[in-house]
């Protein structure tokens, strides 16, 4: 069987000052699928995400989102059409409350969808009046992801959801996002440092090293072939 792809990269390259930081990126995310981008620091994961949403111009290859080529000239149009990025700094306004963020992110008032967010991240429910700057790291991350989901995205990309979070919180958040993505048919791209936790909720993964994909496959297979995974992850130059 073949599902439609919401986001597809083919031989994509992007970088800075004319030098590619990622090359040859192939990736496809369908409805309800989770694809992880893994790799050590500096491997090109964040660069890949920025290229996938048009915040960095492509130096080679192509990216198609929701059936249309991604153009770096108008990333806001992509956001409006339903491609949401949660950046690694979480993109919150510290002086605004949880409720403010949810109000600003939603497309239209939708009590059902709001309930879905609070069911997914119950810790947020008691914090609606609190300013984002006074939330814990985990609560901020739940707010960032929750607010993005309230915008009813068809594709959600999250940069290092687990950054600075206790493993226990990551263990709760990743499956919650995966379950919601499946239920709603949202395609998800995760950039993760927690390799095993990410693979446990992913359908597929791409391991980047030195800006190149060095291992791609079904998450279950990668978990079974640990030596190959480790070799790719820590790989030689
Ligand atoms: P990390 O896990 O540390 O966030 P990453 O896999 O997300 O790493 P990138 O942030 O994509 O890696 O960086 C890939 C390469 O591009 C690195 O060599 C990095 O130094 C370089 N780089 C990233 N951002 C810039 C920038 N704004 N200007 C120039 N070079 C950059």
From TrEMBL:
Domain ABC transporter: 1-235
Keyword match Transport: yes
Molecular function, one GO term: ATP binding
Coiled-coil annotated residue ranges, if any: none
Keywords, comma-separated and alphabetical: Amino-acid transport, ATP-binding, Nucleotide-binding, Transport
Pfam family, one: ABC_tran
PANTHER family according to UniProt: HIGH-AFFINITY BRANCHED-CHAIN AMINO ACID TRANSPORT ATP-BINDING PROTEIN LIVF
Family, per entry: Belongs to the ABC transporter superfamily.
Name of this protein: Branched-chain amino acid transport system ATP-binding protein
């Amino acid at each position: 069987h073949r599902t439609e792809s919401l986001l597809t990269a083919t031989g994509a390259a992007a970088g800075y000052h004319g030098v590619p930081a990622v090359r040859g990126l192939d990736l496809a995310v369908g409805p309800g699928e989770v694809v992880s981008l893994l790799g050590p620091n500096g491997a090109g994961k964040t660069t890949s995400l920025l290229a996938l949403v048009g915040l960095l111009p492509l130096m080679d290859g192509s990216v198609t989102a929701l059936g249309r080529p991604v153009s770096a000239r108008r990333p806001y149009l992509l956001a409006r059409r339903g491609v949401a990025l949660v950046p690694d700094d979480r993109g919150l306004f510290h002086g605004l409350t949880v409720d403010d963020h949810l109000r600003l992110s939603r497309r239209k008032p939708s009590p059902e969808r709001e309930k879905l967010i609070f069911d997914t991240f119950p810790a947020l429910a008691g914090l609606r009046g609190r300013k984002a700057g006074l939330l814990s790291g985990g609560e901020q991350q739940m707010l960032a992801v929750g607010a993005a989901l309230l915008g009813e995205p068809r594709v959600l990309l999250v940069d290092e959801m687990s950054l600075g979070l206790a493993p226990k919180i990551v263990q709760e958040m990743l499956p919650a996002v995966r379950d919601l993505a499946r239920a709603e048919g949202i395609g998800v791209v995760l950039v993760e440092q927690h390799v095993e936790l990410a693979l446990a909720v992913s359908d597929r993964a791409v391991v980047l090293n030195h800006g190149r994909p060095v291992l791609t496959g079904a998450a279950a297979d990668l978990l079974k072939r640990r030596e190959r995974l480790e070799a790719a992850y820590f790989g030689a130059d």
